[in-house]
Design goal:
Chain A: This is ATP-binding cassette domain-containing protein. Chain A: Keywords: ATP-binding, Nucleotide-binding. Chain A: One of its GO terms (cellular component) is plasma membrane. The complex is a heterodimer. By secondary structure, chain A is α/β, with parallel strands linked by helices. Chain A has a domain at about 1-90 and about 155-220: P-loop containing nucleotide triphosphate hydrolases (Rossmann fold), CATH 3.40.50. Chain A is about 35% helix and about 25% strand. Chain A has helices at about 40-45, 70-75, 95-100, 100-105, 110-120, 135-150, 165-180, 195-200; strands at about 1-10, 15-25, 30-35, 55-60, 65, 80-85, 155-160, 185-190, 205-210, 215-220. In chain A, β4 and β5 (about 65) form a beta hairpin. The model of chain A has no long low-confidence stretch (mean pLDDT about 90). Chain B contains 11 helices and 4 strands; from the N terminus they run αααβαβαβαβααααα. In chain B, about 35% of the residues are buried. The model of chain B has no long low-confidence stretch (mean pLDDT about 85). Classes of the chains: A alpha/beta, B alpha+beta. The interface of A and B includes residues 51, 70 and 73 of A.
């Protein structure tokens, strides 16, 4: 699905990631943890080609990102659902239109019943007509997850998806991610919430990766 | 290419909705297109009027010539008769006649007043020549006149016609240049408005890129909006300009050039071409601005 081979990334002020090699296998569930500023978000941006590595190779769906045109990048992103901590919507459009945005930009017309089912699955069935600024943090995160999965992507990348949520809402979002993984989706969640990771490991066979000293390590029992 | 064109021209109500509807750029684009088209209507009227004027001057002066005979009084009648004889046998001359003393007096009246003692002044005799459509050989005629009437000089008005025609052509050129400047100014203003709109909607563009929108799709949403605004604004500007030109005083004998400013016949349809041209300018300007901005984003 997504492979990093000896990848480094330099922001200009020093190297943030170095010698990163990793493969996200189909159907796998990974957590990526590490302190703030360690490079979790940068890693995710490299994984959906918002950033290009300064060294090494990032391969997405068997294609090296450096060889992708801008149109290729757009088409690739239709196969990757992304959920950000500071999720962004088009505030002038109702929630349902925002969730259906990936379908719209790809020229597909989804079944309205599927959209309704999806909103109900994330617990937002009654809020389809609401505007994004009217939603709470938890509702926005769940809406972002719905938008991320509406195209039936192969991979879902979530960057601190529970960062602004209370524990109950975090568990609810985690349950949705686990359900998606059981449907065969490849999941990568960047989080510094170790309680969430411990809880998830009771539900799914998740690997935990940690960024330390610019490199990615497989975390063990010290979690 | 076909897909890109289709994206641009096919109305997609959903896609158009991704760009928030309000903002300063909306009225700025419409106003700019309207104001520039209003001015363009007058520049077009000026250009067409000066073109007509150039044609009229060139046409009227080109068909007439004058032979001026300066000779001693006792030779004047003989040379006049000789010149008229030469002219009557010259191919390409439709008619020729000697001006009467009264006509010559009238010509001089603006400078010397009506009581000019014409008999007391050694004035040359003037012969008015009207050219036939096929034209005559000026150089050949000059040589024949020199041989038959040494005091005769042919003035085919080219000395006067050239600067007049040049002036009219320059006016025509200025009108065309004004149209180009107006178009360039409109393109610059719409580019500024499009850039402002793109900057204000950076978040919208970022969201669209993240969910997999291609540059063509994003650009088309902006381009369609700006093109339609420019088309609407320009349509209003063209209509106002046409009304303004129609309200100018009508052409009359004393009016001269200024009252001749306007359109004639099918010329009234030309301003209707301005809104589609304005829309095309807006389309190209916004498209260039949109792709320039999009290339800055990952």
């Amino acid at each position: 699905m997504i492979a990093f081979d000896n990848v480094a990334y330099n922001y200009g002020g020093g190297e943030l990631l170095s010698e990163v090699s990793l493969r996200l296998a189909p159907g796998s569930f990974h957590f990526l943890t590490g302190p703030s500023g360690a490079g979790k978000t940068t890693f995710l941006k490299l994984a959906y080609a918002e950033l290009l590595p300064t060294a090494g190779r990032v391969t997405i769906f068997d294609r090296e990102v450096r060889g992708l045109t801008r149109d290729d990048v757009a088409l690739t992103r239709r196969r990757i659902g992304v959920v950000h901590q500071d999720v962004q919507f088009l505030d002038h459009l109702p929630l349902a239109a925002n969730v259906a945005m990936p379908l719209m930009v790809s020229g597909r017309t989804g079944d309205p019943r599927d959209l309704t089912d999806l909103l109900q699955w994330v617990g937002l069935g009654q809020l389809g007509d609401a505007l994004p600024p009217q939603l709470s943090g938890g509702e926005r995160q769940r809406a972002a997850l719905a938008r991320a999965v509406i195209m039936g992507p192969d991979v879902i990348l979530a960057d601190e998806p529970t960062g602004n949520l209370d524990w109950e809402m975090s568990l609810r979002l985690l349950t949705l991610l686990v359900e998606l993984n059981k449907m065969g989706k490849t999941i990568l969640v960047a989080t510094h919430d170790l309680n969430l990771i411990r809880t998830a490991k009771n539900q799914v066979a998740a690997r935990v990766l940690r960024i330390r000293n610019r490199r990615i390590q497989l975390a063990g029992a010290d979690l | 290419m076909i897909r890109r064109l289709r994206l641009l021209v096919t109305p997609d109500r959903q896609a158009d909705r991704v760009v928030p509807p309000s903002g300063h750029s909306a009225w700025l684009t419409g106003f700019t297109a309207g104001a520039m088209t209003f001015l363009a209507v007058f520049a077009l009227a000026l250009s067409l009027a000066s073109g007509r004027l150039a044609d009229r001057w060139a046409d009227a002066l080109a068909r007439t010539a004058t032979v001026r005979i300066s000779a001693p009084a006792e030779q004047m009648e003989i040379q006049t008769a000789a010149v008229l004889a030469v002219l009557s046998t010259t191919p390409g001359i439709a008619s020729a006649r000697a001006l009467t003393p009264d006509e010559q007096k009238a010509l001089l009246a603006p400078w010397f007043g009506p009581d000019l003692p014409l008999d007391a002044l050694p004035l040359p005799q003037l012969i008015e020549v009207t050219e036939a459509p096929e034209g005559y050989d000026g150089e050949g005629l000059r040589q024949r006149l020199m041989a038959e009437a040494p005091g005769a000089v042919l003035d085919d008005h080219s000395r006067w016609r050239r600067p007049l025609a040049t002036a009219a052509a320059r006016l025509n050129l200025l009108g065309g240049l004004s149209l180009l400047l107006i178009g360039a100014t409109m393109a610059a203003m719409i580019t500024l408005a499009a850039n402002a709109s793109l900057a204000a909607n950076a978040q919208v563009i970022r969201v669209l890129r993240i969910v997999g929108a291609q540059d063509d799709y994003i650009a088309a949403a902006f381009v369609r909006r700006f093109t339609l605004r420019a088309l609407a604004g320009s349509g209003i500007g063209a209509l106002a300009g046409l009304i303004g030109v129609a309200l100018l005083p009508p052409v009359d004998e004393a009016g001269g050039f200024l009252t001749g400013l306007g359109f004639q016949g099918a010329g009234w349809l030309l301003p209707l071409l301005l809104p589609p041209i304005a829309a095309a300018v807006a389309l190209l300007a916004t498209r260039a601005a949109a792709f320039r901005k999009l290339r800055e984003l990952p």
